[in-house]
Amino acid sequence: MAEVSVRGVTKRFGEMTALDDVSLDFVNGGFFALLGPSGSGKTTLLRVIAGFLFPDAGEVRIAGQPVERVPVEKREIGMMFQSYALFPNLSVAENVGFGLRTRKVPRAEERRRVGEALELVQLEGLGERKPKALSGGQRQRVALARAIVTNPKVLLLDEPLSALDKSLRVDMQIELKRIQREVGITTIFVTHDQEEALTLADRIGILREGRLVQAGPPREVYNAPVDAFTARFLGEANILPDILPEGARVALPSGMRAAAVRPEALRLTAEQPEDTDNILPGRLVQRVFAGSMATCVVDVAGVTWKVIDRDRDLPQLSDDAAVWLSWDTADTLPIAPG
Amino acid sequence: MAGTLSAGDGRRAARLLAPAYLWLTLAVFLPLSAMLFFSFLTAAPFGDKPVEATLSNYRAFFETSTYALLLWKSIKLGLWVTGACILIGYPCALVLAKQIRGRAREALFLLVILPFWSNSLVRIFSWAIVLRGNGVLDRALDAVWPGDVRLALMFTPAAVVIGLVHSYLPYVILTSYLALQAIDDDIVEAARSLGARRLTILWRLVLPLSLPGLLAGAVLVFVPVVGSFMEPRILGGRFGTYYGTVIEDQFVAVFNWPLGAALSFILLAVVLLILGVSSPVLRRGMQ
């Protein structure tokens, strides 16, 4: 268990700059999600922290020690791979005990710690099985047990849940969070699934084209995105156009130049609302009814807006009907133009 | 039920498999059965001499110790060549599969299979030029090494082993390469993240996971080498009498086909026996 600190890390592959002057702190015992679209550099950053890659410039510290030139074998990290990378020729117990064997832990202690780790991931009694004979969820638990049994300073997870189907993934999210709390290990995980990042992490960092765009607690990043990219990437956001259509009324807070509104903050009405500061006229293009809520696509002067609202006025409306969108000024998200 | 063929599928499979099995029957079993038949005759049934059935050809193997000793010599040769092919070929395949990428890999692959492209006689005589006393190898060593160098490898068992290793090395490299290629890079990285050194990874993961390919290559080398005759004859000189050359003599020089056939089938039986005895080990490796 340790804090991890990344300072000014740059990594190039030939002409391509995968990481561009990235600085980030990962607090001791925290659960940190690195989020970004593919090609954003999030996996490269994870591999730099793991020690599979050495940065071209910058500093990586684990527990205060500079490690940017220490190879992965000596870095005392635990890593879980997207493919789980279980050793197919070894049993579950041998897989979990692999890292203890390389560290020359006595056999009796190895047995005890493997047993404890399998208990932690709720796989007691499956130690003799080969990975082939396990389900996807069980393999994932074995990979997790193998990564944490050596008491690494930091646990790195590369898209840990993406190979599981949806229902199993939600179970594993809860499970992963429980285990991380129980062990108290500093955890950094890479994902492109924003929902997963918001559910699991207590801090998230958003990367784009090798740069760190924003980092902070999920709620803060969600409610105050620094730019349109973050606003759109973390949940959905409707960006206010520079030129407002006729009939619109928008009360931008002072000093704010560009703004976005989350779909769930919008109200959709057939009549022009009187009692609100922000209104936009539009045309209903499409609606998808989903129980108590409906998702609507509204055309606002040629720009598509997404609205998630209670199914209130909608039944009376026909497609192509003129509608009004309104929201409270408190829900206006300030963003840097981008 | 899944996994079983319906009657229609079975018929279609039979139609598709028929040419292959027909060819196998014609090309392998017919000539082999003819040879098996000859091996029980007193003479090849081509001349006017009366031909009788006999077991004397098989008895000949057991009447003197010469054949058994030569067979043992050939088996030892097979073990040496197979061992050398593994020691040279496996590291080669490892580097090709895990270290080299892109065009360099293609170029090296070409070099690996180059022996397959050249005529075997040409290949063996080329080795003769290199290995003979005052040949290419001796002169090259003379040029860089002070003092008089006389390796004179030609007409020694070492020359036979060198020639055979050169011929059969590609089998071990190719089969090992395919097995190594199938090992996910994530597995090696996971082992590294768990603190494993290169040797540990090789010994506990890479070697066991690629063993099926390595063993397949070893069998592909061992079986033909035990019966080989060309390399021993040309490169071995007076050391070059092996079980294979004796069989060749029966067919080509002495024209005693029945004895040659009988010796061949004894070789086949012994090789099958060796593979059969070692099959539990092989099968464990293949899993």
Key features of this structure:
heterodimer; A: 338 residues; alpha+beta; Rossmann fold; OB fold (Dihydrolipoamide Acetyltransferase, E2P); 2 domains; six-stranded mixed beta sheet; 18 strands; 25% helix; B: 287 residues; mainly alpha; MetI-like fold; 12 helices; globular
Give a structural overview.
The complex is a heterodimer of chains A (338) and B (287). Chain A has 338 residues and is an alpha+beta fold. Chain A folds into two domains: 230 residues, Rossmann fold (3-Layer(aba) Sandwich), CATH 3.40.50; 80 residues, RNA polymerase II/Efflux pump adaptor protein, barrel-sandwich hybrid domain (OB fold (Dihydrolipoamide Acetyltransferase, E2P)). In chain A, 25% of the residues lie in helices and 32% in strands. Chain A is built from eight helices and 18 strands. Chain A has a six-stranded mixed β-sheet with strand order 6-7-8-3-9-10, with helices on both faces. Chain A has a five-stranded antiparallel β-sheet with strand order 13-17-14-15-16, with no helix packed on it. A four-stranded antiparallel β-sheet of chain A has the order 2-1-4-5, with helices on one face. The longest helix of chain A has 18 residues. The radius of gyration of chain A is 24 Å and the shape is elongated. The model of chain A has no long low-confidence stretch (mean pLDDT 88). Chain B starts with 6 loop residues before the first helix and ends with a helix. Chain B has one domain: MetI-like fold (Orthogonal Bundle). Chain B has twelve helices and no strands. Chain B has 287 residues and is mainly α. The interface between A and B is medium-sized, with 26 and 17 residues.
